[in-house]
Amino acid sequence: MLIGKTVNYSMKQTDISSVLEKYAYQFHPVIPFNEKTDKIVSLNLSRSNTEFTEGIYNDTDLFSRYIDLERKKSNATYLIGGYREHREMYKRSKLFDKNLATEVEIKDEPRSLHLGTDIWGEAGTTIFSPLGGMVHSFAFNDHYGDYGATIILQHQLATTNFYILYGHLSLKDIDGLRKGKFISRGEPFAHFGKPEENGNWPPHLHFQIIIDMSNYEGDYPGVCKMSEADKYLKNSPDPDLVLQLNKLIK
């Protein structure tokens, strides 16, 4: 964080939550969804899911098969979940043993609390901007277990500024992209990436609202230490304020 900058996350979270709730009727769906033919089912990837073993999440192919099987079992177009979820699966990558800002290894407590919502579906699934905004930054975070191709959009509603991070995208989505480019409401601008371009995960979208980006460019923690949950959750409120998908879960 910038030196000398004090941020009251609690107050800002209250502000952004009320603004997003007020303008929710204006948001365009982030993913293609037909209520007559498509289905969304919640997915539990927390430590309480004993069927989701270390052997599965440590192997990208087995992990992908697990997701595909869960979708088929429930006849779901998408599986969704993960906000505030405590997950063991980040043991699959040394990335989560490090502090993202300093790259210093965390010896006492690895990062394990998820700060966004994951939407699991087919590679190539189109992603739409829920409202107009501009490209704040983008990057190819090419580490095992990282975001892979990433885009962060900056938005403003009723003088309230905030950001949305889209992680695990297709590499083609950042090819030729530029900072400051305006993305219109409902514009298709990204896609679910394949494992080789999304950080070696089964295809999905990591969607995270961020109030204060601090010094980050093309990246921001999507997972934090449990001991820092209060700080990070206040800066990343519930993604469903924008996604509005929880009401569609069956």
What does this 3D model show about the protein?
The model is unreliable at 1-6 (pLDDT under 50). 17% of the residues lie in helices and 24% in strands. The protein has helices at residues 9-22, 54-57, 60-73, 229-235, 240-243; strands spanning 40-42, 78-81, 113-114, 117-120, 126-128, 133-141, 148-157, 160-169, 182-183, 188-191, 204-210, 223-224. The protein is globular. It is of the alpha+beta class and 250 residues long. The strands form 3 sheets. The chain has an 8-stranded mixed beta sheet with strand order 1-2-4-11-8-7-6-9. Strands 3-12 form a two-stranded antiparallel ribbon. A two-stranded antiparallel sheet has the order 5-10. The chain starts with 8 loop residues before the first helix and ends in a 7-residue tail after the last helix. It has one domain: Glucose Permease (Domain IIA) (Distorted Sandwich), CATH 2.70.70.
Q: Largest beta sheet, briefly?
A: 8 strands, mixed
CATH superfamily: Glucose Permease (Domain IIA)
Rg from C-alpha positions? 17 Å
* Beta strands, count: 12
CATH architecture: Distorted Sandwich
Counting structural domains, the number is 1
Residue fraction in strands: 15-25%
Low-confidence segments: 1-6
Supply the CATH class: Mainly Beta
Shape: globular
Structural class, by secondary structure, is alpha+beta
Q: What is the straight-line distance between the termini?
A: 40 Å
Q: In which range does the helix fraction lie?
A: 10-25%
Q: How many helical elements?
A: 5
Order of strands, main sheet, comes to 1-2-4-11-8-7-6-9
Order of helices and strands: HEHHEEEEEEEEEEEHH
CATH topology: Glucose Permease (Domain IIA)
Average pLDDT over all residues: 92
